Amino acid sequence: MRVPEWKFKGYFAPKDGAELYEVINGEEFLRAIYDEDVGRFVSVKSCTPS
What we know:
Structural class: mainly beta
Helix content: under 10%
Radius of gyration: 12 Å
Shape: globular
Strand content: 35-45%
Strand order of the largest sheet: 1-2-3
Number of strands: 3
Order of helices and strands: EEE
Low-confidence stretches: none
Number of helices: 0
């Protein structure tokens, strides 16, 4: 699974290790972590439904 990233003029890349969460019914699920070496968010495997 790849996580789409939004790009726009004046964009600043997230810091290495930044976390991307999805909120479902008020519950947070960690979905991806930013990897500065590859320049994108990398999916985190989890046991929760997508």
